[in-house]
Design a protein that fits this description.
By secondary structure, the protein is of the alpha+beta class. The protein has helices spanning 2-9, 45-69, 124-137, 141-147, 200-205, 220-224, 234-257, 315-332, 335-354, 400-414, 416-427, 440-465, 485-499, 505-528; strands spanning 25-28, 33-36, 42-43, 72-76, 83-87, 103-105, 116-117, 155-174, 180-193, 215-216, 226-229, 262-267, 272-285, 288-293, 299-308, 361-367, 381-386, 389-396, 468-472, 478-482. The strands form 2 sheets. The protein has a 17-stranded mixed β-sheet that branches. The protein has a 3-stranded antiparallel β-sheet with strand order 1-2-3. α9 (335-354) packs parallel to α12 (440-465), α11 (416-427) packs across α14 (505-528) and α12 (440-465) crosses α13. The relative contact order is 0.10. The structure holds zinc ion (2 copies). The site of one zinc ion has 8 residues, from loops.
Length: 529
C-alpha cells in the first residue's frame, strides 16, 4: 500500500527503484538496461533519465511555492560569491568562507533549490568533541599546531552538491599503443562539490555518505542548519562532474588494461544529475581547511601543502637494475660482469621508465579514517567491432598461454650459447661436465640488454596492441573472436626498425654482427675454456 503511494507521488530518484514493482533495480552494463531482479522488468537509461527530470521539475515547482511561505532569508557575500539561506531572526555576521560581510537579498527566479538532502546525524558539540579528540591523539604535530586554536570555529552547513549516476561509454587509449578500446561502465553515488570556496580534495576526503538516509528537501531543514547554495555556474559544475566521473571509473579500467598509463574519454550523455545537500561541519581559514562529515563524523584536514605522487617513480627501474645485476654477479661470481650488467640494464630501464615521467603535485589531506566509497568494483564491459556489429567482449592481455610462450622464449634466447654448446658436446659424445659454462656470461652481456630492448620497444607493445578478445555470449559463455597477433607482430617489427632509421647497410651489419660475434665467441669459449 505504502509502496504504491510512493510510486504515484514519484519517489526520490536517488533511491533507484523498478518503476513496475518498486523494489531495487540494478544496471546491467552488457545489456545496457536497468534490470529488476524481483519482477524481471527492464528500464532503459533514457526512461530512467526522463523520470528523474520529471520528478525534479515537480519538486522545483513545489519548492518555489514553499519558499514564499517559509520564514527563511537569503544572504550573499560580495567577496566570494557564497549564497547562504538561514531562518529568519538568525544573526549572520561575517561570511564563514572568506570573512567578508554578508548582504541580504531577495530570492530570484533562478535560485534553484536542491531537491534532496541527507540530514545531520551528528550534533555540533559531538563533531567538535570528535575533532578535538582526533587532534589530541591522532593528528601530526603540524596539524595540531594549525588546528588547535580554530576548533571552536567549526560551523554546520548543508553544502551544495550534485549527485551523479548512470551508464557511461568510454574510449580508452593506452600509452605506447595505437589501438583504441571501447568499453561500457557505470558510475553511482558520485557527489560533486558545487561550492566555489571549498576545497574539492578536502570535501572528497570527508566522503562517503550513506544515501539510504537521503530525503526530499523542504525548508524545515533550514530551521536547524544554515544552507549553502550552489555558487558555481553550470558549465564549471559539468566540468567538475566529468572529472569525478572519469576518476571514478578509472581504477577498474586501469585494472582491466594492466596499466595506469591510459587516457579515458567518457561519454556523459545519459547520466542523471540531481542537486542535493550534504551535512558538513567546516572551518575555512588561511592555510587551513577542515571538513567533518555531518553523517559519519569522518574528518578531513588540509594545510594546503602539496606532495608529488609520482616521486617514487625510480623504485621500479632501480629494483630491476639491482636484481638483474645481482643475478649476473652470483651466477658468474665475477664482479666486473655484475657491475657491467647493472650499468647496461640501468641505462635501458631508466631511459624507458623516465620517458613519460611528469610530476603530479597533489594536495595532502589528513583524514581520521581511510574509509572510501564502498569497494563495489564495477567491471567494465568491452565493446568490440565485428562483421556482425558491436558485441560485448572480455579482453585479456596475459593469458597463461602467452605468459608461458614469452617466458620460454626469453629463457631460450638468453641460454642459447650454453644450450648450443651442450648440444655439440652431446653430439660428440663428450661429458657435459667438461664445459666451461661460465663463458655463457659473454653472451648474456649482450642478450640481456637485447631482451630488454625487445621487451620495451616491441614485445610489450605488441601484447597490448593485440589482446585476446572473447565475445560474451547471451548465455554467459565466452567465445574467442579475434587474434590479430601475426599481423601486428610484423607491423611493430617494421615500426621498430623504422624508428631507429636502420637503413644503412653497415649499421644493420653492426647491429647484427656484434651479437653474432659475441654468440660465437661465447659458444667457442664454453667448449674450449
Ligand atoms: Zn520490478
Ligand atoms: Zn565570502
Amino acid at each position: 500500500m505504502e509502496k504504491e503511494e510512493l510510486l504515484k507521488q514519484g519517489r526520490n530518484p536517488i533511491h533507484l527503484i523498478c518503476p513496475q514493482c518498486g523494489s531495487a533495480a540494478r544496471y546491467d552494463i552488457a545489456d545496457r538496461v536497468y534490470h529488476c531482479a524481483l519482477c524481471g522488468s527492464d528500464t532503459s537509461p533514457g526512461e530512467q533519465l526522463d523520470k528523474s527530470r520529471q520528478w525534479q521539475k515537480l519538486r522545483q515547482k513545489k519548492l518555489k511555492e514553499d519558499v514564499k511561505l517559509s520564514s527563511t532569508l537569503l544572504y550573499s557575500c560580495p567577496g566570494c560569491g557564497a549564497k547562504v539561506i538561514v531562518r529568519e531572526g538568525e544573526a549572520l555576521g561575517t561570511c564563514s568562507f572568506c570573512g567578508g560581510s554578508l548582504v541580504r537579498r531577495e530570492y530570484m527566479g533562478n535560485d534553484a533549490f536542491p531537491e534532496s538532502v541527507i540530514p545531520f546525524r551528528i550534533s555540533l558539540e559531538d563533531a567538535r568533541e570528535k575533532l578535538k579528540k582526533w587532534n589530541r591523539t591522532k593528528a601530526s604535530l603540524k596539524v595540531k599546531r594549525a588546528l588547535s586554536k580554530h576548533i571552536d570555529d567549526l560551523e554546520a552547513y548543508y553544502l551544495p552538491y550534485q549527485f551523479v549516476r548512470g551508464p557511461i561509454e568510454c574510449s580508452i587509449s593506452r600509452d605506447m599503443s595505437e589501438r583504441t578500446y571501447h568499453c561500457g561502465s557505470y558510475v553511482d553515488e558520485i557527489v560533486v562539490n558545487a561550492s566555489r570556496q571549498l576545497n574539492n580534495e578536502v570535501l572528497d576526503a570527508a566522503e562517503p555518505f550513506d544515501f539510504e538516509e537521503c530525503r526530499d528537501f523542504n525548508f524545515g531543514y533550514v530551521a536547524d542548519h544554515k544552507v549553502k547554495m550552489q555558487d558555481i555556474d553550470d558549465q564549471e559544475l559539468l566540468r567538475r562532474s566529468k572529472e569525478e566521473v572519469t576518476k571514478d571509473c578509472r581504477k577498474p579500467i586501469e585494472k582491466a588494461m594492466h596499466s595506469t598509463g591510459i587516457s579515458i574519454y567518457a561519454d556523459n550523455g545519459e547520466l542523471e544529475r540531481l542537486p542535493l545537500l550534504l551535512p558538513m561541519y567546516v572551518i575555512r581559514k588561511p592555510g587551513l581547511d577542515v571538513a567533518v562529515n555531518g553523517q559519519s563524523g569522518k574528518i578531513a584536514v588540509s594545510l594546503n601543502e602539496t606532495v608529488d605522487v609520482n616521486r617514487f617513480w625510480f623504485v621500479e627501474p632501480l629494483m630491476t637494475m639491482l636484481i638483474l645485476g645481482l643475478i649476473a654477479l652470483f651466477w658468474s661470481k665475477d664482479l666486473e660482469l655484475g657491475l657491467l650488467t647493472m650499468a647496461v640494464v640501468g641505462c635501458i630501464v631508466f631511459t624507458a621508465f623516465g620517458q613519460d615521467r611528469s610530476s603530479h603535485p597533489m594536495l595532502k589531506v589528513y583524514t581520521s579514517d581511510r574509509s572510501g566509497k564502498g569497494e563495489k568494483q564495477i567491471r567494465p564491459v568491452f565493446r568490440e567491432q565485428t562483421e556482425k556489429g558491436t558485441v560485448n567482449a572480455e579482453i585479456s592481455f596475459f593469458p597463461l598461454s602467452r605468459i608461458i610462450f614469452y617466458t620460454i622464449g626469453i629463457i631460450l634466447f638468453n641460454a642459447m650459447s650454453a644450450l648450443l654448446a651442450i648440444f655439440f658436446q652431446w653430439c660428440r659424445d663428450l661429458p657435459i661436465s667438461d664445459l666451461h659454462l661460465l663463458y655463457a656470461g659473454l653472451w648474456l652481456v649482450i642478450s640481456v640488454p637485447m631482451t630488454f630492448i625487445f621487451w620495451i620497444a616491441f614485445l610489450r607493445r605488441d601484447i597490448f596492441d593485440c589482446p585476446v578478445v572473447k565475445q560474451i555470449l547471451p548465455n554467459g559463455k565466452r567465445r574467442r573472436i579475434r587474434d590479430e597477433k601475426g599481423e601486428a607482430n610484423i607491423r611493430s617489427f617494421i615500426d621498430f626498425f623504422r624508428k631507429f632509421e636502420i637503413e644503412e647497410f653497415w649499421v644493420g651489419m653492426l647491429l647484427l654482427g656484434l651479437p653474432t660475434l659475441m654468440f660465437v665467441m661465447s659458444v667457442y669459449l664454453i667448449m674450449t675454456g
